[in-house]
Design goal:
Order of helices and strands: HHEEHEHHEHHEHEEHEHEHE
CATH superfamily of one domain: NIF3 (NGG1p interacting factor 3)-like
Largest sheet: 5 strands, mixed
Low-confidence stretches: 7-49, 132-180
Number of strands: 10
CATH class of one domain: Alpha Beta
CATH architecture of one domain: 3-Layer(aba) Sandwich
Strand content: 5-15%
Shape: globular
Number of helices: 11
Helix content: 25-40%
CATH topology of one domain: Udp-n-acetylmuramoylalanyl-d-glutamate--2,6- Diaminopimelate Ligase, Chain: A, domain 1
Radius of gyration: 28 Å
Strand order of the largest sheet: 1-4-3-2-10
Distance between the termini: 29 Å
Mean pLDDT: 79
């Protein structure tokens, strides 16, 4: 399987993208009518000389200084690819740095991409495949896990452990699970004894060939000299929550805010109609899923952006008619909501998807970045809904 990253991206029919990014697909050097674009602005200092271009690291330093929450040292909000010392020609914010978004960033003349979600498909965000949900090399941060049932090795090494095992094998009496000394372990039949491998102790075999998807994405980033930074934990820690504020703005609910940024009292609407409004306003293709009777009338809306734990759903459900969330475990919040509805309670629960949910917040991020990094162009490009629904 090969990955071709050089072709022009297909443009999705995405109302959100058209709303925020009317000229996103303009060819470099062309204006909206197809003519030559105006020369780029050159920012000058007090002496009249052109200002030195900002590097990616300098832009991230401004983010850290102005984000409004204490910046903690972690492995999430960090550079994921590229060179932090690179001079920045433009910035793109997005909910997920897919290959399509990287291509659109290049078309827009931007070389710094700030993404809410991982670039390389896991929390570890490694540029090569690792274990599922683990750190470098798939071994996790604590090293290799012990064999199942091995427990913690006692002090003194393998010799002492072997001695302890021998003593346990001859134990008997109350509490040992044996009424008489246990017999020695019988030898395994030859058919299940592993065949000795030739060259045992020799150098390990060569690593497997690189995954073509990882390789293609890395090659595209390197070829176009892109730098990718993930901004999620610190951005989402801002008050009010930018994801909730952005979603409310996209839906026209800002004036209906009830107390905090997570609660909105809107005019009564049927649950099915609300789900349809979300689908249309957010430009989704199939990721929205709803629980509850479509005819149920709802007014009090609760927002739980991002990944929602069951505890948050339980706490919010009594005070609202419907919860709108980004991402949940189906066997947690979704099943809880399903049982609430089955019990006859007139409630609703709508999951719009993590990538779609992050998009309005990253639109706000682009607007905010323009105020602290006025020297370079900043734009938001939505990643869209990764799913489609069969008819």
């Amino acid at each position: 399987m090969g990955v071709n990253c050089s072709s022009a991206p297909q443009t999705r029919n995405n109302p959100t993208e058209r709303k925020h990014n009317d000229n996103a697909d303009l060819a470099p050097g062309k204006d909206a009518k197809g003519g030559a674009a105006a020369a780029p602005f050159v920012f000058t200092g007090p002496s009249g000389h052109a200002a030195a271009p900002l590097t990616a690291q300098e832009i991230i330093d401004r983010i850290k200084k102005n984000v409004g929450v204490e910046w903690s040292s972690d492995d999430v909000d960090t550079f994921k690819a590229g060179d932090p010392s690179m001079a920045v020609t433009g910035v793109v914010t997005t909910s997920m740095a897919t290959l399509e978004i990287l291509q659109k960033a290049v078309q827009a003349g931007a070389n710094l991409v700030i993404t809410a979600a991982p670039t390389f498909y896991s929390r570890a965000d490694l540029s090569t495949p690792g274990g599922r949900g683990l750190g470098a090399g798939g071994a996790g941060r604590g090293g290799a896990l012990p064999a199942r049932g091995a427990g913690n090795a006692p002090p003194g090494g393998a010799g002492r452990a072997a001695g302890a095992g021998a003593a346990a094998a001859s134990a008997s009496g109350p509490g040992t699970g044996a009424s008489a000394p246990m017999p020695p372990t019988p030898p395994l039949p030859q058919s299940v004894v592993p065949t000795p491998q030739p060259g045992a102790g020799a150098a390990p075999a060569s690593p497997p060939p690189p995954d073509p998807v990882y390789a293609g994405k890395n090659d595209f980033i390197a070829k176009h000299k892109l730098t990718v930074f993930r901004l999620t934990q610190h951005w989402n820690a801002r008050k009010p929550d930018p994801r909730a504020v952005g979603l409310a703005a996209a839906m026209g609910w800002t004036k209906y805010r009830a107390g905090d940024d997570l609660h909105y009292n809107v005019p009564p609407i049927a649950l099915g109609a609300l789900a349809s409004q979300l689908k249309k306003a957010l430009g989704t293709r199939g990721g929205i899923r709803a629980i509850g009777d479509p005819a149920t009338m709802v007014r009090q809306i609760g927002l739980l952006p991002g990944y929602t734990l069951i505890q948050a759903s339980i706490a919010m459900m009594p005070s609202v008619d419907v919860i709108i969330t980004g991402e949940v475990q189906e066997w947690e919040s979704a099943t809880y909501a399903q049982d609430v509805v089955f019990a006859g309670v007139k409630k609703g629960f709508i999951s719009i998807g993590r990538v779609v949910n992050e998009a309005p917040g990253m639109q706000l991020c682009a607007d905010w970045l323009k105020t602290i990094v006025p020297e370079v162009p900043v734009r938001f490009i939505p990643a869209g809904d990764p799913y489609w629904r069969p008819l």
